[in-house]
Design brief:
The protein has 407 residues and is of the alpha/beta class. The chain is 45% helix and 14% strand. It contains 18 helices and eleven strands. Strands 1, 2, 3, 6, 10 and 11 form a six-stranded mixed sheet that branches. Strands 8-7-9 form a three-stranded antiparallel sheet. Strands 4-5 form a two-stranded antiparallel ribbon.
């Protein structure tokens, strides 16, 4: 027992796993991953080194590109037979790319791999038709970020996790004054909020259904924030990314609340000059359904070393690896046991950060999307801004998007 404790302690402080004896034959794996900074790249390289520390006969060569370039290059690499052995995958893009990845259910059963150690919603997000195609490393529910200084100056009680739509709207109205707005919306907030309110925009057959009564009702609420209640500013319909615009206005103090994920905390704390708080998405009459997303690592169907790649992705998503990422503030771990490390670092100075995330994860559901979701979101970005300005109602907007998405 003492030997085991010592080994685990060394693994934790050294960032590596207990090594196993090297086999006679060396295996060289390739791994493709996105990155946003030099620090990001160093984190991923550290994880690649952890694989070799665990399995000296396996070497992992990391290749990184920027986020946008990653998704542009992925289908090109697949078509040319140049996919890496290990492919990084975001849950929202899994429906588009799962055919490039090796199904994992049989390997999980054979090795008795404990999938229950991960947050259930991200296991769902990394699956298609109940088949798991990647082991997740992070998970994140969408949340409401708020400017605590602005709320306190307006005499508004800080929102508690599980607050209602009416409480949210009342707060946003009180915060809208002197050229500043209570809430910042983007077109892609539609599906996040519709899910939170229990309004379906995808039917039981997995088909886009934006013209159902519930889907239109959710659109009417979102549009009403800008067109009727005037608590949200208009967003551009072309050029600048609406999400970047809204986040920038929040950081500058022009918007008091907006929707984002826990992945934005680290960068935001460096930019915002006010106290930041977190709470859940507002619920309607019933319970909150907080959609989550995340990313993980799969094995390409074209890999010549699938057994080694399976060993590697288990290391990349191990408790030690996710604790390392969490302590650096890089990701909210997909493993529930490792999430406390992230709270202590990234959410340390965020009011109610841990409580908001805990509540959201306890009420989380997978983000339901269609296999043409990228095209659907492009249509959201095109058709919602005019509606925000009052030139189209919810029914017209949803009918237009539904029609064009099916072409």
């Amino acid at each position: 027992m003492k030997v085991l404790k010592k080994a685990l302690f060394l693994a934790a402080i050294g960032g590596s796993l207990v090594t196993t004896a090297a086999s006679a034959e060396q295996v060289n794996l390739t791994w493709q991953m996105w990155t946003g900074s030099e620090a990001d790249t160093k984190s991923w390289q550290h994880l690649a080194d952890m694989v070799t520390a665990k399995y000296p006969d396996i070497n992992v060569t990391l290749t990184t590109t920027g986020w946008v370039d990653y998704w542009t290059r992925l289908p090109v690499l697949a078509a040319s037979g140049q996919l890496a052995d290990i492919v990084s995958m975001q849950s929202l893009r899994m429906p588009n790319f799962y055919s490039l990845l090796e199904p994992l259910n049989d390997r999980i059963a054979a090795d008795k791999f404990d999938v229950s150690a991960f947050t259930p919603s991200i296991i769902g997000g990394m699956s298609v038709d109940k088949q798991l195609y990647g082991l997740p490393y992070d998970v994140g529910p969408w949340l409401i970020y708020y400017n605590q200084d602005a709320l306190e100056a307006a005499g508004i009680p800080l929102p508690k996790p599980g607050w209602t739509l009416s409480e949210f709207t009342d707060a946003a109205k009180k915060l809208t004054k002197d050229g500043k707005y209570g809430f910042g919306i983007t077109p892609t907030n539609y599906s996040v909020l519709a899910a939170a309110w229990g309004d379906k925009y995808v039917n039981d057959a997995g088909e886009l259904d934006l013209t159902s009564a519930g889907a239109v009702a959710a659109a009417d609420r979102l549009i009403g924030f800008a067109a009727k209640d005037k608590i949200a500013p208009l967003v551009p319909s072309g050029g600048a990314d609406p999400g970047d615009v809204v986040q920038g206005r929040f950081n500058s103090g022009n918007i008091a609340m907006y929707i984002d994920g826990p992945w934005s905390i680290i960068g935001m704390k460096d930019q915002a000059k006010f106290k930041i708080g977190l709470t859940t998405l507002p619920r309607d009459e019933g319970d909150l359904s907080a959609v989550t997303a995340g990313s993980g690592f799969g094995i390409s169907t074209s890999s010549k070393n699938k057994d080694a790649a399976w060993k590697a992705i288990q290391v990349l998503t191990s408790p030690e690896a996710l604790a390392y990422l969490a302590e650096g503030g890089r990701a909210l771990p997909a493993r529930t046991a490792a999430q406390s490390s992230w709270y202590q670092v990234a959410a340390k100075d965020i009011t109610n950060g841990g409580a908001a995330i805990d509540y959201s994860l306890a009420h989380s559901v997978p983000y339901v999307i269609t296999n043409n979701w990228a095209a659907v979101e492009n249509l959201f970005n095109q058709y919602f801004p005019p509606a925000f300005a009052g030139s189209a109602d919810a029914k017209q907007t949803m009918e237009s998007i539904q029609s064009l998405a099916q072409q």
